[in-house]
């Protein structure tokens, strides 16, 4: 979507190309340089005669340098993007993370439905049936192992669910949520409380940030005075500082991730409550609300569906067959 938008606006790539790819956008979003940091030795020279360089896959030590240069976005913004990328990556797998699937935007249900029996993604299909001697077609969703048994080996007994039944089931859940908004708020707040940093964690966050700043300043000083320092002394000091930095950075990222998840849940709760307030009595399926609020749907063989929402709650409903 971002790549298409860039091409539509006529924005060129760094190399002056008109075509943007998803990989190019991903590299930009994951580049730590935008928030002022850098990682050294991402590539290494393996042949000094041909000057051949390859990606450093662990052959040599990499070092993270904080505040290496002026940032163009805040670290909070960059961290929020990384968390969003992780969430979107999870969308392309079943809840247990076992079965991957390709991204699709053919339907509002695409990449969001999974089989409650075997865990595989549920996919869209057209089915031909007959009623009163007349043939008719309808759209349904079914576990992909039932549709492609030669490709996916699984003894799954899940039946299909008509798309219209899924739509009606989701709308029923929405209207039920509208009637119990106070309970929804209470449920989500309990979930948020699990991610909120404790007073001890908040204090630790401040300490870790201060310690990292001190180490980063020390690394910068050592690097600036490298030529006037004995090589062995420099290597020993810089290696020790990088070791401390790596440990603190990992701890900081864990705290940030927990903090960001709490913010994300609060934002999703606000969005859900707002949409519920605006929800009219008409039972027409609201694809926009589904896309904005639903994280996934788990379909069982008895045609029950568990809709899991981005704010952390879930609701079970029966998808009536027609």
UniProtKB/TrEMBL annotation:
Keywords: Coiled coil, DNA recombination, DNA-binding. GO terms for molecular function: DNA binding; DNA strand exchange activity. Residues 1-91 form the Recombinase domain. It comes from the Bacteria. The keyword Transcription does not apply. The keyword DNA-binding applies. Residues 174-282 form a coiled coil. InterPro entries: DNA_bind_recomb_sf, DNA_bind_recombinase_dom, SSR_resolvase, Zn_ribbon_recom_dom. Pfam families: Recombinase, Zn_ribbon_recom. PANTHER family: DNA-INVERTASE FROM LAMBDOID PROPHAGE, SERINE RECOMBINASE PINE-RELATED. This is Recombinase domain-containing protein. It comes from Heliorestis acidaminivorans. The lineage of its organism: Bacteria, Bacillati, Bacillota, Clostridia, Eubacteriales.
